[in-house]
Design goal:
Blueprint (H helix, E strand, L loop, with lengths): L1 H24 L3 H7 L6 E4 L12 H10 L3 E8 L5 E3 L11 H4 L13 H5 L5 H6 L16 H8 L8 E6 L8 H11 L24 E5 L2 H10 L5 E5 L14 H4 L4 H6 L6 H13 L4 E4 L17 H9 L3 E4 L5 H10 L3 E4 L2 H7 L8 H7 L3
Parallel strand pairs: 1-2, 1-9, 2-4, 4-5, 5-6, 6-7, 7-8, 8-9
Antiparallel strand pairs: 2-3
Helix pairs in contact: 3-7
The chain binds SN-glycerol-3-phosphate and calcium ion.
SN-glycerol-3-phosphate binds next to strand 2.
């Protein structure tokens, strides 16, 4: 019936207009980032400039800083004697000579070692072996770093002070680490008092309200971080799998018959649209300013996961007033793809390449910075 059609059409137009008005009521992502003191788009140096130097070491962090990265990313753990330090893996085998120095404890978690013990380990030689084309003799003997030392590095170049992008790694292993982190940031003057600084323009990241960003995959840690440091921007990390977004298929990698994990992960997706949206809604409800989703990489590799940056996903996240910082991307083809999909910043092992892509190239080469820093 024409009349009914007209009524329905009218109702539909009204609903659409209402939906658009609601979406439009959220600030543009760039404005949102600036309000939080976060550069847009953001260059997040994943474990430092870890393509060119051993991850989470002084070589990698000073390189990322001096190239001009916005943030030094780190995975936070706590030693047996209570010192906060940076390490990605749960154990020390992949990135240190623990098997030689502590053969009987080589499979123990890193947190079973005191800081003095951790400091005896060589966290650089593995890189020279794994990547001979990028090896440097000076990498041999590099140390695991404490959070204090990474703060020193972040503050160490008067020309450019990057912020810190800190992940509570496996936080259930470290009860109270959110409180310890707050205490350390406060002691070092890295906690900006609540409400004291709302950025009006593109922020100088190492000085403004976005100088620290906190990130976690764990809902319980996000809640504790929000309780301890409500004024500090937080990101809920997203991936598809146990403890995070429920997958559409429960088939394991072993059962899948896929040749490598990247191929397996590339076929993973959230159970349905609502499941993805629930996680974004949760992040917002807990006070996060954004999400940190995974991406499927063109070249595959061990940092290629489910594609959680489809344009509809980013649109939904933006419509909730949240930012999207995607991990971990190193190739221009993928930088282009995720930027077109609408992300607001990228975790990268190759800060130099991402800075070039964003037309903010470093004034000096990777090689020159490494040489300047004694590597
Ligand atoms: O922190 C997010 C990003 O670093 C990806 O996770 O496993 O490298 O810490 P991961
Ligand atoms: Ca991390």
């Amino acid at each position: 019936m024409p009349v009914t059609f007209t009524k329905n059409a009218l109702l539909l137009s009204l609903l659409l207009a209402l939906g658009q008005a609601q979406a439009a009521s959220e600030p543009a992502p760039s404005a949102l980032a600036i309000r939080s003191g976060i550069p847009h788009p953001a260059v997040i140096a994943h474990r430092g400039a870890s393509f060119d130097a051993p991850e989470s070491t002084a070589a990698a962090y000073t390189l990322a800083r001096d190239l001009g990265a916005d943030y030094l990313e780190l995975d936070l753990q706590r030693s047996k004697d209570g010192v906060l330090f940076a390490l990605h893996d749960n154990t020390l085998q992949r990135t240190t000579d623990v098997a030689r120095k502590f053969p009987e404890r080589k499979d123990s978690p890193a947190n079973a070692f005191t800081m003095a013990e951790l400091k005896t380990l060589d966290a650089g030689t593995w890189f020279n072996t794994a990547y001979p084309d990028r090896a440097r003799p000076s990498y041999a003997g590099l140390n695991i770093l404490t959070l204090d030392e990474i703060i020193d590095i972040a503050q160490g170049n008067p020309q450019h002070q990057p912020g810190l992008y800190i992940e509570t790694k496996e936080p259930k292993q470290f009860p109270g680490i959110e409180h310890d982190l707050k205490a350390k940031l406060q002691e070092r003057g890295w906690l900006i008092p609540a409400g004291s600084a709302v950025a009006k323009s593109e922020p100088a990241v190492g000085q403004g309200p976005g100088k620290v960003v906190l990130q976690t995959f764990e809902k319980s840690s996000l809640e504790l971080l929000q309780k301890e440091m409500p004024q500090v921007p937080k990101i809920l990390l997203l991936w598809v799998g146990e403890g995070n977004i429920e997958p559409v298929s429960k088939v394991t990698f072993a059962e899948s018959g896929e040749k490598d994990k990247a191929a397996y992960y590339a076929k993973q997706a959230p159970k349905d649209k609502a499941e993805f949206q629930r996680w974004v809604d949760y992040a917002k409800a807990q006070g996060a300013i954004g999400t940190g989703p995974s991406a499927a990489l063109t070249q595959g590799g061990d940092q290629s996961y489910a594609d959680l940056v489809h344009p509809w996903m980013n649109r939904y996240t933006h419509d909730q007033g949240l930012l999207v910082h995607v991990y971990t991307i190193d190739d221009a083809v993928d930088y282009q793809k995720v930027m077109e999909a609408g992300v607001d910043g990228i975790f990268t092992n190759r800060a130099s390449e991402l800075l070039k892509f964003y037309k903010r190239p470093a004034a000096v080469s990777v090689d020159q910075v490494l040489k300047n820093n004694g590597y």
